[in-house]
Amino acid sequence: MWFRRASTGRLAAVSAATGLVLALTAVAAAGPWESGRRTAERARAAALDRGPGRAPDAAHRLAPYVLEPLGAPAEEGQEAAGRSGGRRGAATIPVPTRQGLTDALGPLLEDPDLGPDSSAAVIDATTGDLLYGARESVRTTPASTVKIATAAAVLEVLGPQYRIPTTVVAGAKPGRIVLVGGGDPTLTARGGGDDESAPASLRTLARNTARALKGADAAGSGGNGGSGGAPKVTLAYDTSRFTGPSLHPIGVNDNIARVTALMADQGRVDPKTTGHAPRVADPAASAARTFADLLREEGVEVDGEPRPGRAPVGGEGRLAEVRSQPLSTLVEHMLLHSDNDVAEALARHTALASGRPGSFEGAGDAVEAALRGAGVDLDGAVIADGSGLDRADDVSAGFLASVLALAADPGRPGLRPVLTGLPVAGFSGTLRNRFGDDEEKAAGRASQAAGLVRAKTGTLTGVNTLAGTVVDADGRLLAFAFMTRGTTDPVGAQAALDRLASALANCGCRLAA
Prior knowledge:
Layout: H1 16-25, H2 32-49, H3 56-67, H4 98-109, E1 117-124, E2 130-134, E3 139-140, H5 146-158, E4 165-170, E5 176-180, H6 202-218, E6 232-238, H7 283-297, E7 301-302, E8 307-308, E9 318-323, H8 327-337, H9 340-353, H10 360-373, E10 395-396, H11 397-407, H12 417-420, H13 438-442, E11 453-460, E12 463-471, E13 477-485, H14 490-505
Parallel strand pairs: 5-6, 6-7, 6-8
Antiparallel strand pairs: 1-2, 1-13, 3-10, 4-5, 4-9, 11-12, 12-13
């Protein structure tokens, strides 16, 4: 079966819980917010589960289990699951049967809210085997779940510790400097510290550039040629790292800025906004103007308006540089918040790292090639963009579930941010307000699947998808993808998808095949 990956070398004898916990140990420091988020989820799960008729000790038992299979600490006095064999070995964690999964999921897939075109795939994260499929090889529009493929591909080719540079270099003519966009979609003009755990700061870059220019002036080697006055420069900006059309195929849209190698605060008209918000027409020019203003604040005289230009060949004469947070953090942010700007930039970095053009076409080809090289059967998948906004994206449920299973492979710890970045049902990101009926939410109680399901959502008009991981009632880690197209009620479709994932979380599904 094409879902089993011979290249991963994974042993079926390793339990799902053990394998993932051991793998997550390698990326425990993927982001300082991650451990804090887990702590908050655990506390909230305990608080939500306490209610009329519920004993406090029952709530205490539930809270650790919410995230324990995904790497949270075990109860005090107990060995963490997965260390020295954990509390339960592989032999005692049974694999769901196809018949059991069919009985649990089949009726839910018939929900009319899912529309006429739905599909599903469930894969055992330990073995890579397909456990259940319903039209699992039929390709359809993934919407934002394609970000899972983008995340896995960029981590595969660049690694989780890679940081994206933004640089200022001396120009070819005296007194000219060039701001070189490296393709960092999280570059901000709002911060100004030197904390490497924070997004790269345009203000910090201006301060360090001014310091370098003043030092060159004092040495008589640049700026005003040692005249003792304020350094005087002209500013150009280089966006050549990304090529091809900058406007996404969906056109001008508050969901995404033009895709360019230089932008600050994602090109938002109001830098303080988040989520969907109006964007400037030319993010690169806007960022360059902001940088010029910041240089002036630092005592550098910038003559005229910044103009497009190219840095001298060879990369000589670097004056200052800032770098993004590690790629692991960018991936987690992208998945948690479904950030389209980050997704498109990371897809282009995948292309650049593999020798392809940093364009929409080059990015799509590179993501496909990276996953194919990692052992994923694309089964005809077409990746048209990195974000999933393009309806030309065409992948199957089996493909998405396979990528998630790949990310759970203990032999590929560099891919773990694909899993740790997934929103948690009922707690974070795009799943914060899902997985609970109206009565449960009104009463402040958690859904039975809250904390157990980690998944990426996907939503376009008529398209609703959900793909992620879940620990079933027996403790087995499963990767799943549920996709539907032709829906007319997005709220109803989302609720139906949530019920499918909840069924996996609450079912051992071990009926005889």
